[in-house]
Specification:
The protein has 2 domains: about 140 residues, 3-Layer(aba) Sandwich (Leucine Aminopeptidase, subunit E, domain 1), CATH 3.40.220.10; about 325 residues, Zn peptidases (Aminopeptidase). The chain is about 35% helix and about 20% strand. The longest helix has 23 residues.
Length: about 475
């Protein structure tokens, strides 16, 4: 999609104007447009309320005019502007158009454009295309503005970030048959190929077993595909000697293992690699923009399948950290593959901080619903930075407490730790508490559980369609700007 700036109105298929409630609608309108707008206002069919749209057809020249309500100007936040942008897209997406223009105050423009672009995502790779039956796609956006100095780089960044969010969405939406562990290896190799600032390490199943990563090895035993730990090291004009480490959970399909998921919960379990996909999106950003710093991405990739060699309840695993873990539930596999990655990061890198991203617990949905991302942190500064970043990205985050008694409750009887404790029902906190056993106490660490927010069964936020959302990638982009 091409985005241009123009300091005067030009003819496009749809002209979009954002309107504040009860404020005069500003713009150069034809007589027909003005008459139709006045009629709609007089009849109170359009007031500029939040989520309102009004589509008007002009005669000379033939053009559509879309008015989009932003709501009360005093209460307006950038989140509402993003939703208004998505609302605009949804109002016109079935029309046969390929060009639009946007006219609005610049303080509303940027979030409006972000929401519009996010809502424009389609995962149609597997749809059979019938010639002539599909509507046109929007190929050109013209922004009416005289600010040709400041806007172009901002728009360029919005487009790039949106493209990377779409990349992550594509990965998460992909069926497991087409995105298995070996395909993740191909993806990290692409990142390595595109940047001379990247070093890549690939640990296969034999290497994983040899160095004692008992958690990752066990989870991958039941499948006939590969099991990998993928390590991306990015270094460019770095001022930090110790790396910023990001760890991603990459379960390409989760059957639950021998503790098989019931049918209503096994559908869409190809999404269980959203954390790993997020790390790939982040490292694509680093390499595209040559962001200064020393970053390490660690991705544990496996498929939790049922087979003759599947790991079993009551198995006791020896982890990379040296801890032993008794398996109480094979469907609590994500924490096992993350634990080995976290321990590896602590031992081999002595990080500035570690952030892991994982679709870890369904309990996150019970805690906050689908719109809010839960996280746990051992460092207040880290918590404050991610909360500030989430406010700028409009991806909603909230911190959960984790106390010593939560970590104590993960202790086992036959082994040092159990992978699923039934003594406390706070599942999301307990998932984090398990992982805390594998992180050195002096290293700031954050666990981001995206089980609720990485995937939607139906549209709940207007700029996220059903399916993969790309959360929390935009927050991480904002986060790394302030390191």
């Amino acid at each position: 999609m091409k985005i241009n700036l123009s300091d005067k109105n030009i003819l496009t298929d749809v002209r979009i104007i954002a309107v504040i409630k009860n404020e005069k609608i500003i713009g150069n309108f034809s007589k027909t447009e003005k008459r139709l707008i006045d009629n709609a206002i007089e009849l109170e069919d359009f007031t500029g309320d939040e989520y309102q749209t009004l589509l008007i057809y002009d005669e000379q020249p033939k053009q559509r005019l879309l008015l989009v309500g932003l709501g009360n100007g005093q209460e307006l936040k950038s989140f509402h502007c993003m939703e208004a942008g998505a609302n605009a897209l949804n109002a016109i997406k079935k029309l046969k158009i390929n060009s639009i223009s946007l006219e609005m105050n610049e303080k509303y423009l940027i979030p409006f454009l972000k929401g519009f672009l996010l809502a424009n995502y389609k995962f149609d790779k597997y749809l059979s295309k019938t010639k002539g039956k599909n509507p046109k796609t929007i190929e050109k956006i013209t922004i009416i503005s005289k600010n040709k100095q400041e806007l172009p780089p901002i728009i360029e960044e919005i487009q790039e970030d949106n493209g990377l969010v779409n990349y992550v969405k594509d990965l998460v939406n992909m069926p497991a048959e087409d995105l298995g562990p070996e395909d993740f290896v191909k993806e990290v190799k692409k990142i390595k190929k595109n940047s001379r600032h990247i070093k890549l390490k690939i640990f296969d199943k034999a290497k994983i077993k040899k160095i004692g990563m008992g958690g990752l090895y066990a989870v991958g035993k039941g499948n006939n595909k590969g099991t990998y730990m993928l390590i991306l090291e990015y270094k460019y004009k770095a001022k930090n000697n110790n790396p910023y480490v990001f760890v991603g959970k990459g379960i390409t399909f989760d059957t639950g293992g021998l503790n098989m998921k019931p049918s209503q919960f096994i559908l869409n379990m190809h999404l269980d690699m959203a954390g790993a996909a997020t790390v790939l999106g982040l490292f694509n950003k680093l390499t595209k923009d040559n962001i200064p710093g020393y970053f390490v991405g660690i991705i544990s990739v496996a498929e939790n399948s049922v087979g003759p060699d599947s790991y079993k309840p009551n198995d006791i695993l020896k982890m990379y950290s040296g801890h032993t873990v008794e398996i109480a539930n094979t469907d609590a596999e994500g924490r096992l593959i993350l634990a080995d990655a976290l321990a590896y990061a602590c031992k081999n890198y002595k990080p500035e901080f570690i952030i892991d991203i994982a679709t870890l617990t369904g309990a996150a949905i019970i805690t906050f619903g689908y719109e809010i991302t839960a996280f746990i942190s051992t460092d207040k500064k880290l918590s404050n930075k991610i909360m500030q970043a989430s406010k700028r990205s409009n991806e909603m985050f909230w911190e959960l407490p984790m106390k010593k008694f939560h970590i104590k409750a993960t202790k086992g009887e036959k082994a040092d730790i159990t992978n699923a404790s039934d003594t406390m029902p706070c599942g999301t906190i307990m998932g984090g508490a398990f992982l805390a056993n594998f992180v050195d106490k002096e290293i700031p660490w954050m666990h981001i559980d995206i089980a609720a927010s990485a995937w939607l069964n139906k549209t709940r936020i207007k700029f996220h369609q059903a399916g993969a959302t790309g959360v929390p990638l935009l927050t991480l982009f904002e986060f790394i700007k302030n390191l």
